[in-house]
């Protein structure tokens, strides 16, 4: 299930250039979920193509795989103004699309607090849940889930970078 090209389910449609759909391998069973498209993603229509995407791709390469080996998506498909966090209402509007993307997944990786809040209902500190596997419910299925830091959080924080690297290495091991 994908949004219509002229989707107007929430106010994010007002400022978007493109709806940003998932990118990568739909059959891998491994899906990375970020919070929302940024400026570069809105322009290109692909998730994680800006600075955060470069960090993510670099770590993937170090772990022996690429973005074409997994699926990458976001909780919302349109860029929030000024790169603010998506609101609960905006995430709810895109939730049917996200659930259709995640339904057959073996493993979902939540990139950052907003994605983890949306997918696991967690409101606390990220350092308390990073790399602690849990199960989340996607419609009528239990799906394995690993919360981790968003690549943007690793730019100035070495601990966040190390934890994200652990997550990426785990995925690399699963793909081998």
Give the topology, please.
Elements: E1 23-24, E2 30-34, H1 39-44, H2 51-62, E3 71-74, H3 88-102, E4 107-111, H4 113-120, E5 134-138, E6 141-148, H5 158-175
Parallel strand pairs: 2-3, 2-4, 4-6
Antiparallel strand pairs: 1-3, 5-6
Helix pairs in contact: 2-5
Structural write-up:
With 176 residues, the protein is α/β, with parallel strands linked by helices. Helix content is 34%, strand content 16%. A six-stranded mixed β-sheet has the order 1-3-2-4-6-5. A hairpin with a 2-residue loop joins strand 5 and strand 6. The protein is globular, with a radius of gyration of 15 Å.
> Stretches where pLDDT falls below 50 for ≥5 residues?
none
| pLDDT averaged over residues | 96
Q: What's the end-to-end separation, in Å?
A: 30 Å
Strand order of the largest sheet: 1-3-2-4-6-5
Helical/strand content category? alpha/beta
Pattern of helices and strands: EEHHEHEHEEH
User: Which value, in Å, is the CA radius of gyration?
Assistant: 15 Å
Biggest beta-sheet profile: 6 strands, mixed
Quote the beta fraction. Answer: 15-25%
User: What is the overall number of helices?
Assistant: 5
> How many DSSP E strands?
6
Query: What fraction, in percent, of the residue positions are helical?
Result: 25-40%
Shape: globular
Condensed summary:
The chain is of the alpha/beta class and 176 residues long. It has helices at 39-44, 51-62, 88-102, 113-120, 158-175; strands at residues 23-24, 30-34, 71-74, 107-111, 134-138, 141-148.
